[in-house]
Amino acid sequence: MATMPGRAPRSHAADTRDRILAVAVQLFNERGYAGTSIRDIAQCLGMTKAALYYHFASKDMILDAAVQPFVEAFGHVSDLSRVDPPVSARSIIEGLVEAMAGPGAVLSAFVDDPSVIHRQVGKGDLASHRDAIVIALAGPEPTPSRILRARCAVGCVQAGILGTALERRALAAAGVDAARGGPGEIGVDQPLVPEDVRREVVEAALDALGPTG
């Protein structure tokens, strides 16, 4: 099979891992994380538990791998918020929206399970990234009011994106694709939030932040 110039061919193991993650996230959406077992995932894939364990030693490792793209994207936004000279608040919020709407959409599978959200989002690296973003949005020598507004802006992005993702997840569970009116499905890296909604979320977050000058 020919490969694209400059792109290394993917290994069979990498393709299998991607399939496992896609099916696992779909089941997490349908049944919840706690309600999904390794056996369930293996059966949906048509493989044995032993074969699945070759790629992931536990369900927690599947969860970590599913969330990792969001962790990395969130980290990139955090890095953007630390550059000198500082970038605009709009650029930071746009980056945050893209992180949440793309790889972050996987979090919608876990919003009904606080223990999973606490385990993943409460980790030190994510908390540190979030704090860096809030500080950057609050601006130099921020007042308590500016910090509060910055937190509200970040919360606006999270609520807007995850709320939309949850709505589309519900439509997908009912067999309706919100964008096309056909069968719906949720995957690991599948963006769930249309571009026009992303733009609205950016503007709403900027409104919550208020004037930055």
Major sheet characteristics: none
- State the shape: elongated
List the secondary-structure elements in sequence, H or E: HHHHHHHHH
The percentage helix is: 55-70%
Q: Could you please say which CATH topology of the domain at 67-209 applies here?
A: Tetracycline Repressor, domain 2
What Rg is obtained from the alpha carbons, in whole angstroms?
19 Å
What proportion of the residues form beta strands (DSSP E)? under 5%
Give the CATH class of the domain at 67-209.
Mainly Alpha
State the low-pLDDT regions, or none: 180-190
Nearest-integer average pLDDT: 83
- Structural class by secondary-structure content: mainly alpha
What can you see in these coordinates?
The structure is a single chain. The chain is mainly α and 213 residues long. It has a domain at 67-209: Tetracycline Repressor, domain 2 (Orthogonal Bundle). The protein has nine helices and no strands. It has helices at residues 12-31, 38-45, 49-55, 59-80, 89-101, 114-121, 124-138, 144-173, 195-209. The longest helix has 30 residues, at 144-173. Mean pLDDT is 83; it is low at 180-190. Keywords: DNA-binding, Transcription, Transcription regulation. This is Regulatory protein TetR. InterPro entries: Homeodomain-like_sf, HTH-type_TetR-like_transc_reg, HTH_TetR. One of its GO terms (molecular function) is DNA-binding transcription factor activity.
